[in-house]
Automatic annotation (TrEMBL), chain A:
Entry's Gene Ontology BP terms: transmembrane transport
Record bears the keyword Membrane: yes
GO cellular component terms attached to this protein's record: plasma membrane
Transmembrane segments annotated in the record for this chain: 12-33, 71-96, 108-129, 141-163, 184-209, 240-261
Superkingdom of the organism of origin: Bacteria
Main location per the UniProt record: membrane
Protein name: Trehalose transport system permease protein SugB
Keywords carried by this UniProt record: Cell membrane, Membrane, Transmembrane, Transmembrane helix, Transport
Pfam families: BPD_transp_1
TrEMBL record, chain B:
Signal peptide boundaries: 1-24
Family under the similarity heading: Belongs to the bacterial solute-binding protein 1 family.
Protein name: Putative ABC transporter-binding protein
Principal localisation: periplasm
Locations listed in the record: Periplasm
Keywords, comma-separated and alphabetical: Signal
Organism (species): Phaeobacter italicus
GO cellular component: periplasmic space
Length: 276, 435
């Protein structure tokens, strides 16, 4: 039976939730507001949040200086490509771990996750040398592979958790009806796990979109995504905060919009199986 | 007639063949994000029109760029055809054989016109490895109105004692005016650069001739105590975390009486579009302490070609274009003389148009008073004014500056910061095989 919550407590909880939400969103809001200020207004101390002269000059300057559409396209291809590659590998891997577990399955899962514990810079030189060897420096395919490998442990873990929630009896019934392994995965398992796969997919796109270490270190001019676009406006010798904010807003806008429209799937997927 | 026609035809064919062999390339250039570099990017069409070569820019924040180009050049990655590097990296990379020697520049380029201090700092064993795009030193920028109000007059070459007294006299806490703004932020290129340059004027040095750390000397104790004492009296709150940008922001808003920092800042603080005190700024040499060394540094952002690039000819053409006298004229025509890249060429300071710029002479005087080969009062084994040009320096100096910043913030004493700096520097130098 659901507990009844007193209206006053509900109001306090709501207020608290909105306050925490606002606190988390505040840096993004400040960035967006700063992008509409002049450079002089951007450095004003104390900062002015509302009563300033709004201007689009920073966006104009950024568009004139940088080829935004190329950075955006690279981000879309790299984030999308690494996600598709990752899902293609993770679904069979998670299936085998969820439905045909061995004694070492848990160990393998933990080992996969342990690769996330190594600081990225620790393998920068080996990866860089491999990229030179295979001619993949400053290529989108190279970054897709690296980002796919980086996020693969998380995808496999998430899918494994979703698959474990699916009753094995359904798959057994399909097998008894003569379904092959391929048919079982494609026609039975995947449709049932769509919410989980969708949220994994979205999370992976967000992680790949925001990844800044490898995308800065393995690209130059051709494959550089929006992270490099932002980095090009940061400077320790010169006050370009308003332009940096404009570039940041342009870089995060697509992923914010995607996150906004898919928040229902994202939340339902992430909380899938949380309550039993 | 036939012979004449035949000769004309042969000449035409040879010209076409020559033009065909010098095919257009696309070169990739890694650079930092600052006003001069962005201006250069905007003028690249002029280079393309003259040579037919296209340029692709990779612009990164200074520290990100350092890591990025170091990774690429040390692995011979070949991602860039030209790299923007500084005076710290150039002699080290030149010695490693990582850079193309710029010893065959064209006669029109006039390499002898490069300021000797810049050419010296960008060379190894007398060979130039990077061409200076712009050079800088550091100097005092001060508020003429506040100085006058305090009843003082800034000498052209002040001492630290005068600067401290003037800072105290100009400080007006009620009106949020700090007598002096200086870098205290951790980082070898931020607060580390400032305190090292300042220590030179106090008779301190990083290493003795046997590469032993010297932070246990009286000279270093005097430097740090003077800095902290003056900043506690007259500096802004939280100065331990202030770097170039924070101080620039304070100065432009009229909250600093004096600011000792990079000479390139002069064009920012005198720009009425950004600065509220643009018409009230004076300039003076960085202070000394009567020991024969001033506290100004020397730096250049320079263009270098990584060894192994497949587009060396086009890269040299670009460097000759970007660091030429003609380029300076091009910027002056488009943006005015105050915005030309300073500190690289002698001829710029002989130009009457540039001499009319208020900070031009002081910039030159500051550059000329810094000697990277003889920066300390006592003899030292390293080259560099605000750094020691050895590969280990950046890592060590970052840690040392963190210790110093902790002392500025009151998290530890000056004595503790110096003893920690002494220990960590000696440990690092021993591990690197210097001791």
């Amino acid at each position: 039976m659901a507990r009844s919550i007193a209206p006053r407590r509900k109001a306090i909880n709501t207020l608290l939730a909105w306050s925490v939400g606002f606190l988390i969103f505040f840096p993004i809001l400040w960035t967006i507001l700063t992008s509409f200020k002049t450079e002089a207004a951007a450095i004003a101390n104390p900062p002015v949040f509302i009563g300033f002269d709004w201007t689009l000059e920073n966006y104009q300057a950024v568009m004139e200086r940088s080829n935004y559409s190329r950075f955006l396209w690279n981000s879309i291809v790299i984030a999308g490509g690494s996600t598709v590659l990752g899902i293609l590998i993770a679904i069979p891997a998670a299936w085998s771990m969820a439905f045909v577990p061995s004694k070492r399955t848990k160990d393998i899962l933990l080992w996969m996750l342990s690769t996330k514990m190594l600081p990225a810079v620790g393998v920068l030189y080996p990866i860089y040398l491999l990229f030179i060897k295979f001619g993949m420096l400053d290529t989108k395919i190279g970054l897709m592979i690296v980002l796919m490998l980086i996020n693969l442990p998380i995808i496999v873990w998430m899918l494994y958790t979703y698959f474990k929630e699916i009753p094995g009896e359904i798959l057994e019934a399909a097998r008894m009806d003569g379904a092959t392994l391929r048919e079982e995965v494609i026609y039975i398992l995947t449709p049932m796990a769509i919410p989980g796969i969708a949220s994994t997919l979205l999370l992976n796109v967000i992680l790949a979109w925001n990844e800044a270490f490898w995308t800065l270190n393995l690209t130059a001019a051709k494959a550089a995504p929006l992270t490099a676009f932002i980095a090009s406006y940061s400077s320790p010798e010169g006050l370009f905060y308003a332009k940096l904010s404009a570039a940041s807003t342009m870089a995060i806008a697509p992923i914010l919009i995607l996150g906004w429209f898919s928040q229902k799937q994202l939340v339902s997927g992430l909380t899938f199986g949380a309550v039993k | 007639m036939f012979v004449k026609n035949a000769l004309c035809a042969a000449t035409a064919i040879s010209l076409i063949t020559t033009a065909g062999s010098a095919s257009a390339e696309t070169i990739t250039i890694a650079t930092v994000n600052n006003g001069d570099m962005i201006r250069m990017q905007g003028l690249t069409d002029d280079f393309t029109a003259k040579t037919g070569h296209d340029v692709e820019w990779v612009t990164l924040e200074e520290n990100v760029l350092r890591q990025r180009v170091t990774t690429d050049i040390s692995t011979k990655g070949g991602a860039f055809d030209i790299m923007t590097i500084g005076m710290y990296e150039t002699p080290i990379w030149g010695a490693n054989g990582w850079l193309v020697a710029l010893d065959n520049l064209s006669e029109d380029y006039d390499a002898a016109d490069i300021l000797p201090a810049m050419a010296g700092g960008l060379s190894h064993d007398g060979t130039l490895y990077a061409a200076p795009f712009y050079g800088e030193s550091s100097m005092i920028m001060y508020r003429t109105d506040l100085m006058e109000k305090a009843g003082l007059e800034m000498p052209k070459d002040p001492t630290w004692t005068f600067v401290r007294e003037a800072a105290a006299a100009m400080t007006d806490r009620d009106n949020e005016i700090n007598g002096i703004c200086l870098r205290g932020k951790a980082g070898w290129g931020e607060g580390g650069a400032f305190i090292t340059a300042m220590s030179n004027s106090f008779g301190a040095r990083w290493f003795d001739m046997d590469w032993n750390a010297q932070f246990d000397t009286e000279a270093w104790a005097n430097t740090l105590k003077f800095f902290k004492g003056m900043m506690d009296e007259s500096g802004p709150a939280g100065y331990a975390t202030n770097g170039f940008n924070e101080n620039l922001s304070l100065f432009q808003q009229g909250k600093c009486g004096m600011w000792i920092d990079a000479t390139v800042a002069a064009s920012f603080v005198t720009n009425p579009n950004d600065s509220t005190v643009a018409d009230k700024v004076g300039f003076a040499l960085a202070p000394d302490n009567g020991l024969g060394k001033r506290s100004n540094w020397l730096w250049a952002w320079a263009l270098a070609i990584p060894a192994g690039t497949q587009k060396q000819d086009a890269a040299i053409q670009f460097i000759e274009w970007a660091t030429s006298k003609d380029y300076i004229e091009l910027v002056a025509a488009n943006e005015g003389w105050a915005n030309v890249p300073p500190g690289a060429r002698i001829s710029l300071y002989e130009n009457p148009n540039y001499q009319a710029v208020p900070f031009a002479q002081m910039t030159l005087d500051s550059i000329l008073s810094a000697d990277p080969n003889n920066s300390t009062v006592e003899e030292s084994p390293y080259v560099g004014v605000q750094f020691a040009a050895i590969p280990e320096f950046a890592g060590i100096a970052t840690e040392v500056s963190q210790e110093f910043s902790a002392a500025y913030a009151g998290q530890q004493t000056v004595e503790k910061a110096l003893s920690n700096a002494q220990a960590l520097t000696n440990d690092a130098m021993e591990a690197a095989g210097y001791r």
